[in-house]
Structures are given as structure tokens and as C-alpha cells.
Amino acid sequence: MRVGIFGGTFDPIHNAHLFVAESARLLERLDRVLFVPASNQHYRDKAHADATHRCAMILGAIESNPAFALDDTDLREDATGYTADLLPRLHAKYSGADFTFIIGADSLVNAAWVRFNDVLEGLERFVIAPRPGIAADALSRVIAAVPPDLRERVKSLNLPEIPESATLVRTLIAQGRSIRYLVPEPVWQYIVAQRLYGFDDA
């Protein structure tokens, strides 16, 4: 089985996440895509919504796609938040699966990855979705630093750059503006019902 791993805070999950996941599934011929929310991101600010809320929103967002699933391995108390530590746990959990890691170019270029070579050694493929504001030469420099024997596992996905982000969603909510149709309808309804991210009826 070929399994995609899509990690992140998903704070909240939005339509661009789903587009990237589905595109990667089709382009890489994946049987399944796991959404793996993290509780201990070393390269981002602390999540604004707690893990329970973020998992609930992910489940609502992916409910209509049988190829998508939630995996909470990186939310456990003993999780380190490092992908190099996450992958062995996923290999043990999904025995025999070949993993493709799905990531946005911004997360690759702007983060200091720990044991990146170990990450690549645990994968069949590491695929990168383009993101606005990430120059091609910056991405090329990161890839060029990968040892030649692992570099062939890294590839860019042929996708359009989509400006939507969780930061944008939270900013619009803080400004009292609509985020409906930037996020899946179940996510929008959940944010309203739970009054997340400072949502106010007014």
C-alpha cells in the first residue's frame, strides 16, 4: 500500500490543504492520505486551537473522501514533534506501507529540519507543493543540500500556487470577516459553533 503522510498543525484545516492532499494522491498514485496533526511543532508558534478541536475539524473536512484518514500518532504525550521520530512509529503502525511525505514549500524552506536525511531514508518519496512567496532558487538550495543518493526521492508537485493559509483564515476571523468557502463547510460550522479563533456572531 502506498500511503501519503500530510503533517502540520491544521489550525484550522482549509480547502488548500484538501486540494494539495487530493492532488498528491492522484499524481503519486497513493492509496491513502493520512492527515497527521502535530501538537509539538518546533518551527511554528503554538497552535491556537487545541488538539481536540483540530482533530474534529479534520474529521469533518475529510469525511466525504474515503481515501483520507486522520492519524493522531504525533499528538500523543510521548511524541517529540520531529518527523524523524514520527516515521518509525508510522512504519510500525502501517506495516508494509510505502510512505510519501507531503509538504508545502514554505514549511521546507522556512523550517530548520532535524535529521532530514533520516526522514528521507524512511520514505519512498518526499513531495513538495508550491507556495506563494517561496522563490524557486531558495527551494533549489535546500534540495541541493540533500545527499545525491537521497535527492531522487524529493520532487516538486506540478500544482498552482494557492495563497490560502491557516494564518489568513485566522486573520479574517479576527477582523470579523467571512471565511466561509475558504474552509470546508463542516469546518466553518464547527468554528462558528465552538467560537474558535475569536469568532463573534457580530
What does this structure look like?
This protein has 202 residues and is α/β, with parallel strands linked by helices. The chain has helices spanning 15-27, 51-62, 83-93, 105-109, 116-121, 136-144, 148-151, 166-174, 185-194, and strands spanning 2-8, 32-37, 68-70, 98-104, 125-129, 154-156. It has one domain (2-162): HUPs (Rossmann fold), CATH 3.40.50.620. Strands 3-2-1-4-5-6 form a six-stranded parallel sheet. Helix 2 links the parallel strand 2 and strand 3. The radius of gyration is 17 Å and the shape is globular. It starts with a strand and ends in an 8-residue tail after the last helix. The model has no long low-confidence stretch (mean pLDDT 92).
Task: Describe how the helices and strands are arranged.
Blueprint: E1 2-8, H1 15-27, E2 32-37, H2 51-62, E3 68-70, H3 83-93, E4 98-104, H4 105-109, H5 116-121, E5 125-129, H6 136-144, H7 148-151, E6 154-156, H8 166-174, H9 185-194
Parallel strand pairs: 1-2, 1-4, 2-3, 4-5, 5-6
